[in-house]
Specification:
The structure holds two protein chains of two kinds. Chain A is α/β, with parallel strands linked by helices. Chain A is built from ten helices and seven strands. Chain B has two domains: about 200 residues, 3-Layer(aba) Sandwich (Rossmann fold); about 130 residues, Rossmann fold (3-Layer(aba) Sandwich), CATH 3.40.50. The chains are: A alpha/beta, B alpha/beta.
Chain lengths: ~325, ~325
């Protein structure tokens, strides 16, 4: 198998791992065995996968209240993630983070920031540290379309721009700020047009096309790494699950949902792989079995893992 | 030993820490403009010449700059982030309270957040929005250490301790105690200068100090209120009342050992603060004392604080607002009979 084919199949595998992870988590949550709340990533897999595929080992991402996809794509690992979702001491944040704060800085992901827009200044500061130390590392801030109407977004993107920081601002435009449609929150056709206000490049791509996302991210990351400053990268996508928990999405028009399902990234990429002769259905089914087995093993080990001692809650406030 | 003001001592502290450790840098508004002011109160004056790459002068973007400090700190830097007036911290509340204070905890103790934050406080003839004492607001937020230096010696020592600490530390500084000079001099300023040793030193965070020994009553206050308490103690000495003045210096963590020992000795306590009385730091200290040393108290703990109103502008109203030595004297007289 060529390097190219291996890479394409790894993208497919990552997207499928995110999808199957989210579906399994949804089931566990709805049946009542998983605590907490969840904001899920089904339908947006191509964004995290395409962007993270353009990063190097030392790069760092910041994420949102919808972070499972970013964490998987960045390599936090299904097992420590599943343990965290179950609130286990063996989770990637030792049970103190949960779904909305999942992450592992050692793997290049800051614990997710669940305040909309809150991660954008933080990614900017990470990039500031890289630049001050003359390290060729890049920071990525993932955010939803809702975040661009937060003041923190404006302050941070402007700072990234004036200081030419090695950071990429990725807007995942899934067309809804929670339940509010994009037409009610922004007057722009392309959210990347906001970049003009900061004097940086703005790019809009089909966020359900993993290769388009990857190519755009590669360009933006290379630009950042070369010291040429940030890019505002808008990836247009669609959330094919609820905003959170049991949200039935009555605010998404039926026709729009049906159309979105035809364009969801995984089925689309599978067709591309088969049409290009890179993998047949049997090979893709094999990947699916591997992915499902990995997730099932993580559920089993998470359910068997020890709960934290209640009084452990008192630790870790200060170093 | 040389006598220095708080502004000078803080400037020396920043210079020494940036020289000692290249991870240390300053980030803030108007802190590094040649021909400028060195921040609103001259603390960083001229440092941009010595450290051109580590004096990060920002746009007017408080949420942005505190978030950037957090990002840099997580990458191993030791930022010193400041605002021109403490009131502007409120523009950065999400970054300070939701992000900086909680990042280590949310990571399960896997991330360190070595950030120093500096904020001038105190009512100084500027009306309601450049005036607040915000100690009580941040006092109730787990995950942030808080220090309040009343002298130049403590300002430098606490700043250095904060920069070397691996946690978020918020330093409240008082506008009338800086000793800022020239165009940035403050009317009504109080001399808080100290003899500063040549050699390196820190003032440990969480350790208070007895400023004046006494036997009849313990008066507890930080920043300007410590100076007012000393004035009150002097006056009361003339009336035969012996006042012990304690400067906790740190609010989080708080030096309960020192304060408890003093109140066990005197049996009486007056807690003074410049901020509003309701939900104040004084309320917390008084409640703790009631629980910790109830058997030793010979009178109820008294609080002296500002009324629960915004800071007024007009000088007679501002003087009415802010606790002074006379109000401390009055409170002491009520419980020492």
């Amino acid at each position: 198998m060529s390097q190219d084919a291996k890479f394409l199949l790894s993208l497919y595998r990552t997207m499928l791992l995110i999808r199957q992870f989210e579906e399994r988590v949804k089931f566990l949550f709805l049946e009542g065995s998983m605590p907490g709340t969840i904001h899920q990533y089904q339908g947006q897999e191509a964004v995290a996968t395409g962007v993270c595929a353009a990063l190097n080992a030392g790069d760092v991402i910041t994420s949102t209240h919808r972070p499972h996809g970013h964490a998987i794509a960045r390599g936090v690992g299904v097992e420590p993630m599943m343990h965290e979702l179950f609130g286990k001491v063996t989770g990637c944040c030792h049970g103190k983070g949960g779904s909305m704060h999942i992450g592992d800085l050692e793997k290049g992901m800051v614990p997710a920031i669940a305040i909309v827009g809150g991660n954008v200044p933080i990614a900017t500061g990470i990039a500031l540290a890289f630049k001050m130390r003359k390290e060729k590392r890049v920071a990525v801030s993932f955010m939803g379309d809702g975040a661009i109407n937060e003041g923190a977004f404006h302050e941070a993107v402007n700072m990234g721009a004036i200081w030419s920081l090695p950071v990429v601002y990725v807007i995942e435009n899934n067309l809804y700020s929670a339940s509010t449609p994009i037409a009610q929150t922004v007057k722009l056709k392309h959210l990347s047009d906001r970049s003009a206000g900061y004097g940086i490049p703005g790019v809009t791509v089909d966020g359900n096309d993993v290769l388009a996302v990857f190519e755009a991210a590669k360009t933006a990351v290379a630009r950042a790494r070369a010291g040429e400053g940030p890019t505002l990268l808008e990836c247009v996508t669609y959330r094919i699950t609820g905003h959170s928990r049991r949200d039935p999405c009555h605010y998404q028009p039926e026709a729009e949902r049906k159309q979105a399902l035809l364009k969801e990234p995984i089925g689309r990429f599978a067709k591309h792989l088969m049409a290009a002769g890179i993998a047949g259905q049997t090979a893709l089914d094999g990947i699916r079995r591997e992915v499902d087995a990995e997730i099932e093993a993580s559920v089993k080990s998470a359910m068997a893992a020890a709960d934290p001692k209640p009084e452990d809650a008192l630790n870790d406030v200060f170093a | 030993m040389e006598r220095k003001t708080i502004a000078e001592a803080l400037r020396d502290g920043l210079r020494e820490e940036m020289t000692r450790d290249e991870r240390v840098f300053c980030i803030g508004e108007d802190i590094a403009i040649p021909g400028g002011w060195g921040g609103a109160f001259t603390v960083t004056l001229g440092l941009e010449k010595e450290f051109p790459e580590r004096m990060i002068n920002t746009p007017i973007s408080e949420a942005g700059l505190f978030g950037a400090a957090l990002g840099a700190a997580m990458m191993g830097m030791h930022p010193v982030a400041d605002v021109q007036y403490g009131d502007f911290l409120l523009c950065a509340m999400d970054q300070i309270v939701d992000q900086i204070a909680k990042m280590r905890y949310m990571s399960g103790g896997r991330i360190k957040v070595p950030i120093t934050m500096r904020a001038p406080v105190g009512a100084t003839g500027r009306g309601a929005q450049h005036a607040q004492n915000l100690e009580s607001i941040f006092f109730s937020v787990p995950g942030i250490k808080i220090v309040c230096p009343a002298t130049a010696y403590d300002a430098k020592g606490l700043l250095k301790a904060a920069i070397r600490d691996e946690n978020p530390v918020l330093i409240f500084e008082h506008k009338l105690l800086y000793g800022s000079k020239g165009a940035r001099a403050e009317s009504g300023a109080v001399d808080a200068s100290s003899e500063i040793p040549e050699q390196d030193y820190i003032v440990p965070i969480g350790k208070g100090v007895v400023r004046r020994e006494g036997t009849d009553v313990t008066v507890i206050g930080t920043l300007m209120m410590m100076h007012r308490a000393l004035q009150a103690a002097e006056q009361l000495a003339g009336e035969g009342i012996s006042v012990e003045v304690i400067d906790p210096r740190s609010l989080v963590p708080f030096d309960w050992e020192l304060v408890e020992a003093s109140v066990r000795k005197t049996g009486r306590a007056v807690v003074v603060e410049e901020g509003p009385r309701r939900g104040g730091v004084g309320a917390e200290i008084a409640a703790e004392l009631a629980e910790r040393v109830s058997d030793y108290l010979t009178a109820p703990v008294k609080r002296v604080a500002s009324p629960d109103i915004p800071v007024p502008f007009s000088p007679p109203m501002e003087d009415f607002y802010r606790p002074d030595a006379a109000r401390i004297v009055e409170a002491v007289r009520k419980i020492v009979s």
